[in-house]
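Marked as duplicate of an earlier ticket. Keeping the data here for the record.
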Amino acid sequence: MQLKSLRPPPPLSLPANWRDLYVAGSFAQRELVDEGRLRSLAKERSFSLGIGHSTLEGFDAAGALRPIAFALRGYWTGLSVPAEDPENIAFREERDTVPWETYAWAYQHEPDYTTVSPLFSPWQLLYVDDVLEGTEASLNLETLLLPEEKRDAALTQLRHFLEGQDNAWKALDDGWSPLVKLLVALQNRYWPEVSNRTVVVSAREDEPLVPAGPDQSDFDAGATLEALGATEEEVLDAYYFLVERGLDRDPQDGLTMLRRARPRAFHVRWRGLARRAQDHFDAAEVLRLFLAELLGEPPPRPETWPLDGRQPERFALWDHGPAADWSPQEVKDELLSAELYPHGVHVLGEGASEGVMVERLVAAALGRRGLAEISFYDLRGSGSAPHVAPLAKTLGDYAVRALVIVDREGQMAEYVNAAIGEGTLPRDNVLLFDDSLEASNASTQELIDLAREIGLRPEAEEERVHLQLEPEELERYHTDRRERSSKNDKPGLADSLIRLARRKTDGRLDIDKLVLVHSLADQLVAELVEAGGPVSEGLAARRPIVAFVFDRLLPAINRPRPVG
């Protein structure tokens, strides 16, 4: 047999009564609702409260769900606070259980037509699922099909469990009433912030609209708690209770926090469990904001929690706030964690060479799937130096990550280093080469060997070019060129190699720089394939572009492959 768990909120010392809360204007920002509105709200949460008074009246008589009050002359909101004269309101907790027709009233112009106007707080929807399901228990087929005597004996043994559930069901309203009163007492202060909606009224025709209810500018959390008669520990326990209860109702689809990140206006579209969970998170957020004012900081995580596999969601709810606003960065981070973020990595490179190398390394590691998730922006030399930092920041606002690859010398590096120092560009997302891409990732001898190999590629012997060049000669030539160049226009070693190779072969070996870069990329990819595993410290030291791509780029886009 399976029973319905009807766990009430933790004990809460709250001697406040509904009349006092009503007279104080506590319902101004979240008013009482009539029977019809309660049914509509319940339907949005996939609850059915029946047709007519009979279902709700039966819940009232049993003690499972009682109205807060009955309006004795109708109930009109939006004109004053409190909405109606308290003398025209019958508060249920002040009365014995009587048939609802006792509270019937007649329209002034239709004295023969009478109606009953029970009033509820929307917060009572927090336990409507227990009200509706608490009268049920499931028996397995094996028990029901037992011979009559054995079946009756089994049911007799189960009877005290069923009676316990029935007693808990009949005590639901009493168990929840203190927490609902606490939420009502705090809603004028915190509900506008949680719901992003403020109810306004006009005190007089010639005055502008103002927030409904008592002025909250001088709200004192400590004095409010003292006036209510509760303790910080009780409020904290209620907060934890609401978060856990909300998480218990939220679908286990990995989207718990993404739902919380959706704009408030979209929440009304949710139905069923997702909407019920949000009700609890909203209530918990009211208490969290109150506790934050009481404690001077957001409430901590509880000391213990269930080990049910939902700890990450639970921690996120406690740390962020179960219904707090989200910044764009927080939304981005949550989409990334849920593997739903559509943007990839943007790489800003000083020239086309960086683009070739990055794309070749990503393709070698992840194939075409990885290439689809990166974009390369060619800065086209030092002329774009003033724009590199703001461009990286702009791209980084929506990209998974924005990476910058530039030479250490010249204007480009000056602007990049300034942005790093200001904190607008993360240091880990920048790769600064001492000389150039080619010289920083290959030795002088290796570059000469690549140039020789290019010269020997033609199939026809007469078209092949044999380059005779030693590393010392290239280094002297390159050093001389750099000394004669301006500070912001230092040539790279690859450029010096191409010029010197052309000079030494009388122009017959005219190497395209990107061809040289592709050859270097082939060599680096071959080394990765040969290594057949993680990038070693030696390889990372010799090929910083490989270490950078594997450390900062690939982890940001290496998502699980589709299955099935």
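See parent ticket for discussion. The radius of gyration is 36 Å.
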